[in-house]
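Narrative progress, year one. The postdoctoral researcher (J.K.) led the effort to move from monomer predictions toward full complexes, under supervision of the PI. The following entry was the first complex the group processed end to end, covering 986 residues in total.
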Amino acid sequence: MNALPCTIYVSFTGALLALAVGTRSAGAARIVALLTALTAWGLTLGAAVNFVPAAGLQELINAAWIPEFGIRYHLAADGISLTLLVLTGLAATAGVLFSWNITERTGEFFALYLALIGGVYGVFLSADAFALFVFYEIAIVPKYFLIAKWGSTNREYGAMKLVLYSFAGSALVLAGLLWAYAAGHATGFGFPELVAATGRLDLTQQTGILALVFLGFATLAGMFPLHTWAPTGHVAAPTAASMLLAGVVMKLGAYGCLRVALPLSPEAFHLLQPWIAWLAIIGIIYAGLVALVQDDFKFVIGYSSVSHMGFVLLGLAAANPVAVSGAVFQMFSHGVIAGLLFAVVGRMVYERTHTRQLADLRALPLHRLLPFAAVVFVLAGLASMGLPGFSGFPAELTILIGTWQTNPLWALAAATGVLIAAAFTLRAIQVSFFGRTGPDICVTPLESLPPITWPEKAGALLLLGATIYLGLSPDTLLDWIRPALQSPYFHAILSGGAS
Amino acid sequence: MNADYAGLFRALLPETHLVVGALLVLTIDMIWARHRPANRHHVALLLGIIALLTAGYAAITSGASGHIYGGMLKLDQLAIATRTAVIVLAALALALLPDSRRMNHPAEFTAILLFATTGFTLMAAANNLLVAFLALELASLSLYVLAGFDKTSPESAEAGLKYFLFGGMAAAFLLFGFSLLYGLTGSLGLEQIATQLVMQGQSPLLVVALVMVLVAFGFKAAAAPFHLWAPDVYQGAPAPAAALIASASKLAGLVLFTRLLWPGLGSAVGTIAHVPVTVGWAPVVALLSGASLLLGNIGALAQTNVRRLLAYSAIAHAGALLLGVIAAGRIGVGPLFYYAATYGLATVGAFGVIAALESAGPVHQLTDLAGLHKRSPLLAGCLAVFILSLAGIPPLAGFFGKFSVFASVLQLGGLAGPVGWLVILAIALSAVALYYYLLILKQALVAAPVADATPVRVTDPAAIALLLAASLIVALGLWPSAVLELF
């Protein structure tokens, strides 16, 4: 447990190292990146093995940093953080494996990639809003370069849009936190201190602060109508960056909502609760419907990410222990499944066929050309639809059960989203991999594609293993998450759920 | 007045070093170096750096001895920190000299730069209207010459002339304002003026004097609507001169005017943290700040020239710095100093990269930066640090500068008044600013070099200066308390 802060340092050191060795040899940079990601992931797993679930954050580091503003370098973790830390390690390792084919400026690619990962670890470990914000912004900038340099379709536009949305979101967060800090005469930026400071203000100001901070984080979580950066960004990004964006970075937003925004003011939250819930539901349904009519394979996955993140936001908005634990579980589950889907589409298919247009893919007998990719995509698609046996099922089911307890109408509306998800996923599977089927297909030599390489297989098996394991044994994670939600810090927002 | 010449000499030791150094540079160049054109730049640079280092050492060790020479100067923590910072910034700017090969008179350039630095260090400590004005003019006149120093370039001449005309006008306003203040209070010392003003209260004449002073302040800080000189000067001046104008001059000016406005005219501040606003200088400064934030950030979006873009970014930063001035008297001057000093570091660095690039070819358009990562990884890496710091990305110092200024302004009264709303505006505009900063970095780090691009060779002094500036920005960003705890 005490080794968890090392995940941050290991990642940043690895970034510098990859930059240094990358000037000499691309292969060395890859090895450095893989070892760094594995080490950090190993640290999180080691902490997970020895983890004793408890209510409240377990201290890791708490030192004065900028005493003039009461800012502390305060790292701590609970079951929620740990869930997301393990996810980060897993997604980072798989991402390195799926970017094994990066040959241009490899060292710089992995340096930016690992810097992004380091920032993400930092966010999930921070127990001081200032530290969290710093790590959050560290995670934003590398995305621009990753996408603008190594991306594909419309990459400069996608990169700029994504980064400006993220940064504008973080500006809202900063404005809200500073407002609470200054107007509420807080002595520091620790979470309880900010909650106390917000509590000293009148309800109008509380609502303003909560709205600013929540909107800021929700932008990154892909909440409708601030989600438009996500599909364009995902599509433009190189595969590993798409995997991280959908898998981990969007979770930063959701995590910020849960950890920082919502507890700030229970009264203001109850005012805003229906708005948040309906925006989340609109996001689920709208993004699902849009995914249904996309021509670009990656856009289908991009919009499906927005739709699935809608479930996370709905779970948070429902604000009872069941729904919120489902939301955290969904963060993990979606992180794994979205990573898998992007890996198949971006790396296995696009890098070989050089097209993502469903119409073009339909003309290829992809299930014969790339059987491994077809199997992985079908399994990932089933997981994404929420079929039992995969992690998507317990996640979305828990969210819907919890939401029903708060407001059955929300649960019913969101449940239609599950049907839509099934529709667009099945359509994607059918059109892309099984567009040309029948006994009479012969694969022409012209159509033969390079075989799937070992890093791709390893990465896919890692992610598949995680989603199946959690689908069969969801309590592994829920046993960490549930006690964390018993913390007095969450008590005020999680108790008064029924409305 | 008790004339303590020994105390005065001790207090002015840094200035003495600078002036002696300047004279030495000129003498040695005249006698020896000008016959050896190959070494001329390096001799001037070496002597200049030695003068700055000894002056910096004297400034750090001088100790906060309070009032000097009957209150003409005030050596407090702020003065010491500012003197040290302007000397460091001047040294960094001077290190860019060998990259400006077209400059034919390096010794004169160095000497004038040292004179300008003398002006800055005096501005940092001035506690008397007359000393303040003289220090300001010493610095300004030197800067006019430096701006027009490149005799081969018409743009440089234009920059010098424009800067001089605007600056002369601003100085006239300032002098008129000072004379009104003297007429009102019968004294030139800031403390005496403050006591007098508390007794007299507000008067129309005081308002006129304030407006005059603020015009000059707006000019010095490059705040809208007195910013018009900035784009042309930044574009035309030789890179070391532009770096000095953008960094040390701005820091010294901000400290001078903060001292003038808070300890001197503090009773006429007015309120702006709450509605209704009362008359004073703070509402005017807030207006300048809002105008600069909007004009700087929106103007920068349309720029295609690197230096003009930096000028508009400077105008935008001036807006945020002016917010810091409003908070300085109540919350403390630490955030303002931190912001101005680290902003100076980043700007000097950015101009340093431009200077190094200019030695390999013209740098006009943003696209001239294309492929910098291939042509010189060092320059590209340093530029990324400087630009991201200007954009306010943690953990670089530019972020904490903004953060601390905004936090201290909000501590005045939250969002209950216009100054709080300005903070929200400034935070919102920082997202706009990221766009144009990323345009620079996109060229430098992402775009491929043009076909005939050659590697850029960076001279050692410039490389050291750039690395020093970049590491200071990272270090101060990670440990801002190193600066904040001074105050």
